[in-house]
């Protein structure tokens, strides 16, 4: 099992450009999450999904969109990148119900210039 | 408002020393998890505590969940350089699909 994988690992964008981050999990988890991690701010939830075809806003959703067309994939889109979106982005997945752990991907380091 | 406050934010110690980090809240959690994150990687679960007053041990790491399920602590005995990393606590408020994360304690263990 690969667990949770993220593509790409690094990316540099110019202000105004768009991009999509891909997250894939092979554990058949129902729940998937996108977080951003900034120094001194911890992990902040951007959007999440509790199942295929469903998405919901997290703590910091502005400037981002998501889609979950397939259970194993969760896409995070930036339509018009801004320097404030420079961050490390983590995807995570979790089994529904119970107190199961969240499994995290290795992260994507995004720089917007 | 940060639901989970972690302290200290930074901790630098020598190998062999003991340390305790804290995770506090005014809210009740049905369970609390501790994760460790090494540089360049995603967080990895260390332990989940569920019952108020519960103590769990993982080799040199001891985790405690407060009696009122509002706080938790992580104690490391005889720290090693391999313990270096960011320690995050995360709370489950029950019935929610989301976890609430603290901002973390960045631990550096010097040789």
Task: Describe the secondary-structure layout.
The complex is a heterodimer of chains A (113) and B (111).
Chain A: E1 4-7, E2 10-13, E3 19-25, E4 31-38, E5 42-49, E6 56-57, E7 65-67, E8 73-78, E9 87-94, E10 103-104, E11 108-112
Parallel strand pairs in A: 2-11
Antiparallel strand pairs in A: 1-3, 3-8, 4-5, 4-9, 5-6, 7-8, 9-10, 9-11
Chain B: E1 5-7, E2 10-14, E3 19-24, E4 31-37, E5 44-49, E6 55-58, E7 61-65, E8 71-76, E9 85-92, E10 100-101, E11 105-110
Parallel strand pairs in B: 2-11
Antiparallel strand pairs in B: 1-3, 3-8, 4-5, 4-9, 6-7, 7-8, 9-10, 9-11
Question: Key features?
Answer:
heterodimer, A: 113 residues, mainly beta, seven-stranded mixed beta sheet, four-stranded antiparallel beta sheet, globular, B: 111 residues, six-stranded mixed beta sheet, five-stranded antiparallel beta sheet
Description:
The complex is a heterodimer of chains A (113) and B (111). Chain A has 113 residues and is mostly beta strands. Chain B is built from no helices and eleven strands. In chain B, a hairpin with a 7-residue loop joins strand 9 and strand 10. Chain B is globular, with a radius of gyration of 13 Å. The interface between A and B is medium-sized, with 21 and 22 residues.
């Amino acid at each position: 099992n690969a667990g949770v994988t993220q593509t790409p690992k690094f990316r540099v964008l110019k202000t105004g450009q768009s991009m999509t981050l891909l997250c894939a999990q092979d554990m058949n988890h129902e729940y998937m999450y996108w977080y951003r991690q900034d120094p001194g701010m911890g992990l902040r939830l951007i959007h999440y999904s509790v199942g295929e075809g469903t998405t919901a806003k997290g703590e910091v959703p502005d400037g981002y969109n998501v889609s979950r067309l397939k259970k194993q994939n969760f896409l995070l889109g930036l339509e018009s990148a801004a320097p404030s979106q420079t961050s490390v982005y983590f995807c995570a997945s979790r089994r529904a119900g119970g107190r199961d752990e969240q499994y995290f991907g290795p992260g994507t380091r995004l720089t917007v210039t | 408002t940060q639901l989970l406050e972690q302290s200290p934010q930074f901790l630098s110690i020598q190998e062999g020393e003991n340390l305790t980090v804290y995770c506090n809240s005014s809210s009740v959690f049905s369970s609390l998890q501790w994760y460790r994150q090494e540089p360049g990687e995603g967080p990895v679960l260390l332990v989940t505590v569920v019952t108020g007053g519960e103590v769990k041990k993982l080799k040199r790491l001891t985790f405690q969940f407060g009696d009122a399920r509002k706080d938790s602590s992580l104690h490391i005995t005889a720290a090693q350089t391999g313990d270096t990393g960011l320690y995050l606590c995360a709370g489950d408020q029950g019935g929610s699909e989301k976890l609430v994360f603290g901002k973390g304690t960045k631990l550096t263990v010097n040789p």
